[in-house]
Amino acid sequence: MATFISVPLKKSSEVDLVKPLSKFVTATYPAAEEQADYIRSVEELNKLRKSALGRPLDKHESSLEILLRYYDQLCAVEPKFPFSENQLCLTFTWKDAFDKGSLFGGSVKLGSGAFGHIKDTVLSALNREPTMDISPETVGTLSLIMLAQAQEVFFLKATSDKMKDAIIAKLANQTADFYGDAFKQCQYKENLPKEVLPVLAAKHCIMQANAELHQSLLAKQKKRFGEEIARLQHATELVKTVASRYDEYVSVKDLSDKISRALTAAKKDNDFIYHDRVPEVKDLEHIGKAALVKATTITPPLSAKFTDLFEKMVPMAVQQSMSVYSQRKAETVNRLVGTMREATNLCNGVLASLNLPAALEDLSGDSIPQSIVEKARAIVQQGGLLSIEQLIRDLPELLTRNREILEESLKMLGDEESTDSELRSKFSQRWNRTPSGDLYKPLRAEGGNFRSVLDKAVQADQVVRERYNTHCEMIALLCKPEAELTAAIPSANPVKTLQGSEVVSVLRSQLAQLEEVKKEREGLEVEIKGVAFDMSSSFLTALAQDGAINEEALSMSQLDQSYGSYSQRVQASLRSQEELLGKVQASHQEFSKLKQSNSEANDREEVLKKLASAHDSYVEITSNLREGTKFYNDLTEILLKFQNKCSDIVFARKTERDELLKDLQQSIAREPSAPSFNVPAYQTNPAPTAADPTPAPRTVFVSSQSSMGRWEERIRGQLCTKEVTPLRDRWKCTGGEWSEIGVGCLKKWFTVF
């Protein structure tokens, strides 16, 4: 059986995928049905990992199918979850595949492309130093080895099928080249097992010998008998090199015998019959090459039976684009709605300053204008002072809760970062993981943004509170019974001459038009808030076609299409209001000239203005306070997610820290406590006294060495002095008799060689 180099399966420790992935699903997908489906898929993924890595796999195609399905599922899952050190952080611990066990076994799947994929794709995603078995140098070498072995399989198949010698020679020569390239790649590297280098060197020579053997048969067919002998002689030298240097790893007896028989027969025939001149090896024509293999690109899915457990879940790139699109949409809606509300507030402020429409309703001079009565009734229905004061009292509590969540989250990061810094200072370069300070920069920046948002919210709350203090007296007056409200408003002489005037009719018509504009805005606001468009299909299409999503271009195009007409309608509404307010102000000037003016009328009008303004302020302050309450409650949910994110990454870092500490402690424990030193000869070789019996020679094992001294010398070359010396002393001190312990230990060590 041909000797092939195989790579043992890497071993990993158990990782709980259910808890962190389910936590992400719960936070990201609020819909109950969707959430339940994804959590079941998470549990299936965890089972699949345990099947692939949690138990020994049989050497069967079914075991390979399990690994391929798990790999395919990982490839499908990766773009759908935010796996990173500062988001969804999972710590996987892998052992070096070469830490023990032999590299040599039977026929295995060949994997040049797989190792190339690891080198070009996988290593760039690692956030810490890879184990030696998957370092760039190692996987590059393994890729070349697998390529050479794949080519050798074609050579063996061609030989078995008894194809033409010219073809077999070219296949063998190309195989020799591949092995030579692999040998050069790992010649000065010590991260592969020691058996690899001699096997590659041996295979290089063996394949050259096979190429020369089959090329010699071709020369014989063409009656070039001197060339036949030269090639067989070169092949003989090559197999002798292998037999003398690498016989421990590869046997070439059959090939050597075959070449020897062919060379003996060729020399005999040439000496007695042909007398053809035997050329020098350097003068021989170069053998051609035929490469039938190449490293193939790894393109999932690799399993024909693969079904994505998270097929309905959109990739993270789409999720992130959807999130940004939602923000852009919210900003667009808020801008349009905010513009309309500002215009309405401006309109109400102008009318309140003109005491409209109360001035038109107060021509009698002693009754409460109907608009004031309606405003007072509306405030009472909304809860009056008690409602607004309760909202004001709630805000500080909500603010304090949010600040506590934020500060606790940042404290978690700070505590873990301090621990990481202390351990980095203690272990120096051995503490080879990403510094927490660098890792937490995005989270700290996010926390800083939250703190800034809270500070601005506090300032906004103060503005609302001051406005309430300004108008609270008049708001309280509007909350009183109608009789008390009537008594609080100064009376004035009636203005009966204006009751049937044209200017009053014009003003009332203009005010009615303004009310119509405001009602249209309320309907327009509902329409704008109700616009819905699912961008996920657009983002998925872009991702499938281009491999990336130009979120900004796609989002802005859709937003322009969805809200362009609404923006035009908002601007038209603003223009109508501006035009009407101009007319109202002009009509009011004429109305004021006709109205009889006196101090009592002025006092009454001033109070009515304040009452109208108090109503408008009450409505706006109540709206602001409710928006503020909703803002703080929504922010609480966001901050709790931020806290969970911080908690998860701190827990993952703690788990990683514990693993790294364990490895470092084991490494330190294995290190010698003192440097090696030479023991004086008189301590290791005490002169025997006259009374001591002369130790008789004793054979411990059947060995190829002729003496105990040579065998001990071989051990001394492989093991450190301090390990061999105690056994040697024990042997000499017992008069050549090995104790049971000594023999057991030495047997154990002997198996190493």
From TrEMBL:
Spans traversing the lipid bilayer: none
Matches recorded under PROSITE patterns: BRO1
InterPro entries, per database record: ALIX_V_dom, BRO1_dom, BRO1_sf
GO biological process, one term: mitotic cytokinesis
Taxonomy, superkingdom: Eukaryota
CC annotations in GO: endosome
Domain BRO1: 3-351
Protein name: Programmed cell death 6 interacting protein
